[in-house]
Design a protein that fits this description.
The complex is a heterodimer of chains A (116) and B (117).
Chain A (H helix, E strand, L loop, with lengths): L4 E3 L2 E4 L5 E6 L6 E8 L3 E9 L2 E5 L6 E5 L5 E5 L8 E8 L5 E2 L4 E2 L3 E5 L1
Parallel strand pairs in A: 2-12
Antiparallel strand pairs in A: 1-3, 3-8, 4-5, 4-9, 5-6, 7-8, 9-11, 9-12
Chain B lengths: L2 E3 L4 E5 L4 E3 L2 E3 L5 E8 L6 E7 L6 E3 L2 E6 L4 E6 L8 E9 L1 E2 L6 E2 L3 E6 L1
Parallel strand pairs in B: 2-13
Antiparallel strand pairs in B: 1-4, 3-9, 5-6, 5-10, 7-8, 8-9, 10-12, 10-13
The chains are: A mainly beta (116), B mainly beta (117).
Chain lengths: 116, 117
Amino acid sequence: DSGVTQTPKHLITATGQRVTLRCSPRSGDLSVYWYQQSLDQGLQFLIQYYNGEERAKGNILERFSAQQFPDLHSELNLSSLELGDSALYFCASSVQPGTSGSNEQFFGPGTRLTVL
Amino acid sequence: AQKVTQAQTEISVVEKEDVTLDCVYETRDTTYYLFWYKQPPSGELVFLIRRNSFDEQNEISGRYSWNFQKSTSSFNFTITASQVVDSAVYFCALSESYTGANSKLTFGKGITLSVRP
């Protein structure tokens, strides 16, 4: 158990719909990351939040958005869903590196999204 | 731009064989970090190791060992005396070094390892 929790575990929805994925980081971790894992694209970084602020953006579609709340949990919102959005969505968190560095990220169990 | 290449896509071995998973990376940074993660059939991503670019010492942890060679931009992972429980997808990943906060991971495509009894 990594200490990162994600809900729901599975989500089945229809095209055009909107869903929200939720993530709670490990206690004390200020950084939260979202990744998408699909068969054709592999594991891709979507977005990072650090202590409530957006820190970095990757290959995140405009239909997707995220936020990190004061209690440090994060939500990933996916709207106008398409068949191609079906994937496993991971949240990860990490300890701060101090002045510089890059610590390991601990991943949640993922949310499997199926768009029909 | 950063890039991680795992040229092997699938490897199948018989239990107790040794197996090496290759990872080649590209980065323009002088300071960077390399990682290996394991994804068993259950789907979660499990952290295995982190190595910074200044530390080229090989590391051994039980049946696992890692060989980092900056000269060839490689960070290979060897499992000695493989077991059925080692069957999983293994990902190599790379991140830059940022001040004050960690950086995103750039993953390779992963290597599917099957260990047969």
